Amino acid sequence: MNGQWYDADAGPLVRPYAMTGGRTKPGPHGVRFDLIALVVVDPDGGGDDTAEALLGPEHRALLGLCRAETQSVAELAAEADLPVGVVRVLLGDLLEGGHVRVSRPVPPAQLPDERILREVIEGLRAL
Q1: How many CA within 13 A on the CB side of residue 10?
Q2: Which of 43, 63, 42, 44 shows the shortest CA–CA distance to 53?
Q3: How far, in Å, are 24, 68, 74, 75, 80 from residue 32 at the CA level?
Q4: How far, CA to CA in Å, does 2 sit from each of 5, 6, 51, 88?
């Protein structure tokens, strides 16, 4: 090579610890973001343009992805091309600022039994 770096050869320009300020845990409340937790922009939250202008570029990128559609933590990490740990810390910041809401899917143990659902379907067909 002739001494010039091309974008692909340079590697990541900002290290993950710089994006999170050296933090490894999301927020002071210790909220836990499962990989399947769903993240959506909070329409009633602190998402005004002035507050968003104070956020870092990675925060704004995550907000942009969440605006397009509800995304899981794993999807956000993949789309933003960031490590999951970094995404969790950044989402903690966004949650603390009221920019996003996080919900968890219903655990399988709380879903109705498949047998019951089949009986309901058969009952509806019988009508």
Answers
A1: 8
A2: 63
A3: 12, 23, 13, 16, 19
A4: 9, 11, 44, 39
- CA dist 38 and 55 (Å) reads 21
- Which residue ranges in the chain fall short of pLDDT 70? 1-25, 27-30, 45-53, 106-109, 111
Inter-residue contact 74 to 84 (CB < 8 Å): yes
**Cα dist from 75 to 25, 78, 83, 88, 115, whole Å:** 19, 5, 11, 12, 32
- Using a 10 angstrom Cβ sphere, with 0-12 exposed, 13-18 middle and 19 or more buried, the burial of residue 5 is exposed
Q: What would the pLDDT profile of 103-114 be if each residue is shown by its tens digit?
A: 877 666 676 778
- Strand pairing report for 100-103 and 71-72: unpaired
